[in-house]
Amino acid sequence: MKDTYNGWANYETWRMQLEVIDGMTLENFGIDLHEADTGDFSDVELVAENVSQYVDEFVLGEIPNGLARDLAASFLDRVDWVEIAEHLIEDAR
Asked: What is the pTM of this model?
């Protein structure tokens, strides 16, 4: 059985959802909420990619190269962006 954290895939996914994504909508990521549909995986992947890019810029944007940046990037690599995308699409409905 897959471990979860507060109902999310893992701690990293929960934390990004809580601290960065919470309160945002598809439109914040350049997605028309009427066009996104979780039934079409390409839509979910598009949302996931847009959210991932946004968070990468938000979190890593000001961190200079070095250990802190590497640790932050490693943390972000463990986020389940598809789960967050699906949640955003469901909220839009």
From this structure: 0.87
List, as own/partner pairs, every contact residues 81-86 make where C-beta atoms lie below 8 angstroms and the sequence separation is at least 24, other chains included: 81/48, 81/49, 81/51, 81/52, 82/44, 82/45, 82/48, 83/8, 83/9, 83/13, 84/13, 84/16, 84/17, 84/21, 84/48, 84/51, 85/44, 85/45, 85/47, 85/48, 85/51, 86/38, 86/44
- Which residues contact residue 38 at a Cβ distance below 8 angstroms, ignoring those fewer than 6 apart? 44, 86, 89, 90
The strand pairing partners of 5, in sequence order, are 8
Q: Which of 44, 82, 75, 47 is nearest to 59 (CA)?
A: 75
CA of 59: how far to CAs of 29, 54, 69, in Å?
16, 9, 9
pLDDT tens by residue, 23-44: 999 999 888 776 666 566 678 8
Q: For 13-22, how does the pLDDT look when each residue is reduced to its tens digit (9 = 90+)?
A: 999 999 999 9
